[in-house]
Amino acid sequence: MHGLIDSHCHVDFPQFDASRDEVLRACHQNGMSAILVPGVTLAQWPRLSEVIHAYPDVTHYPRLLPAYGLHPCFMADHAAESTAGLMARLDAQLAEEAGCVVAVGEIGLDSFHSTADLKQQVTLFEAQLRIAGSHGLPVIIHSRKTQDLVLKSVRKQRFSFGGILHAFSGSLQQAQQAVDLGFKIGFGGAATYERASRLRGMLKALPREAIVFETDAPDIPPSFARDRPNSPFNLFRIVEILAQVRQESVADLLEYSSKNLIGVLNLAD
């Protein structure tokens, strides 16, 4: 697998219904080889699976890589079932998609708006870490204002399959701790803003072995497209900007970021 890989894109979301085929073709024609598509709720998984399997032709489209998980920002949706029930459903989904699914995610912790349900978030997150471990899969982690708690849970569960800390917003020290635990750090549109000095400083400081790139489309639009929904096609320009930040060539960033993803997701090169 060669070419640019978007390590986090919700291309199954309804925002892409009118343009999905066109966008995916354009991404492939410009050299994007794969897109990781994470799950967020139980109700969304069937649609995710449908979109993934609607694009098997990797001669015209990027390879779509599914992950299934329960996002911490949708706790109200998850409350319809017990944690045990949700884990049984996740376990069954991973078994059904074995050979296709590449990770468990998007999972994690989020206290950006409130800490009211943080205890329940931790319970769900740690349960999903255990399921991922039982399947030998890496995880895609969402973390806002909770980086230390996320790392604590990973250590507590002795989770050893690594993964990606997507749209990372913690400190360089926290990023380095995550890398030591087998994780890659996801950078995307947020780092294209000149005012994002702390994030850009971390991008420059981390070793190339730690870095992957993402859009999180349709969210987190980059500086050059801030007034419209994000698209995986924007990743080409995002990488050009971040290459300037790291003072490296675009070709080098493409090569090692894709190599990092192939390694952490156990993909066939």
Question: What descriptors fit this protein?
Answer:
8 strands, 10 helices, TIM Barrel, 269 residues, eight-stranded parallel β-sheet, alpha/beta
Provide an overview of this structure.
The protein is of the alpha/beta class and 269 residues long. It has one domain (4-264): Metal-dependent hydrolases (TIM Barrel, Alpha-Beta Barrel). It contains ten helices and eight strands. It has helices at residues 20-29, 45-53, 75-78, 83-96, 118-135, 147-156, 172-180, 197-205, 235-246, 250-264; strands at residues 4-6, 32-37, 63-68, 103-110, 139-144, 163-165, 183-187, 211-213. It has an eight-stranded parallel beta sheet. It is globular, with a radius of gyration of 17 Å.
